[in-house]
Amino acid sequence: MVNLPLTEIFSSIQGEGPYVGVRQLFLRLPKCNLTCPYCDTETKVPQQFRIETVAGSQHFNKLDNPIALDKLLELLLQTYDFPIHHSLSVTGGEPLLWSNELRVLLPLLKEKGLTIYLETNGTLPDQLLDVIPWVDIISMDIKLPFADQVYWDVHEAFLRSSFQKDVFVKIVVEKETTLNDLQNACDLIAGVDRSILTVLQPVTQIHGIMTPKPYQLLEWQSLFLEKLINVRVIPQTHVFIGQL
Ligand code: SF4
Predict the structure, then answer these.
(1) How is the chain split into domains, by residue range?
(2) 61-84 pLDDT, tens per residue?
(3) Which atom of ligand 1 lies closest to the CA of 43?
(4) Ligand 1 centre distance from Cα of residue 34 (Å)
(5) Atom of ligand 1 nearest to the CA of 172
(6) What DSSP string runs through the chain?
(7) CA of 178 to the centre of ligand 1 (A)
């Protein structure tokens, strides 16, 4: 049987993007191939993962990593009421680093009636193709360049493959974000399809990285709306209400 290490499992409210407010089961997987300066997530593989058995209780049981996929499915079925959940969010870290395991797990979850929502940094297009048959909704980041890391080409390949599914793009923006980078991101999306829903997500202040000013957000949204049809500014809402 295939095993998979996890970071945490919980049932909560989606706090980002166009599905904000829907109830989801979250499966957070460890490891990431990027080091974004505003990252707020622990990405190391823990010896044990945690599972919140009563939603919102902040009470967690701990279980050893990795877990066999049949045991994981049993655990999810025993702990959660699947039908009340809009979807199951596979998140990270970067979940596509576990594409070999996910191509076994996702069909099992779909057999139980779950809609699969993939949250990804959008930089692993080959791994996306391994799992895309079982994914329904793709929340894809476009990472604006940081340090010497630039991802335009892989993002474009990723977005072209994602377009066969319900995909939206999320771009985290901060006070120091440049018009040039935003223009490149906008052109990339418009080059795939100008109807792709695009979310500008003002960074939640962290590590000295500042949230953009209101005028910046409005100016940037206007810039995107010159080429794209559906552009929204949506902050991380779960942080306002203390949700996981
Ligand atoms: S892609 Fe996500 S998890 Fe990975 S470093 Fe960036 S913010 Fe953190």
Answers:
(1) 3-233
(2) 999 999 999 999 999 999 999 999
(3) 3
(4) 6
(5) 7
(6) --EE--SEEEEEE--SGGGTT-EEEEEE----S---TT--S--S--SEEEEESSTTS--EEEEESSEEHHHHHHHHHHH--GGG-SEEEEESS-GGGGHHHHHHHHHHHHHTTPPEEEEE-S--HHHHHHHGGG--EEEEE-PPPBTTB--HHHHHHHHHHHTTSEEEEEEEE-TT--HHHHHHHHHHHHHH-TTSEEEEEEPPPBTTBPPPPHHHHHHHHHHHHTT-S-EEE----TTTTT--
(7) 20
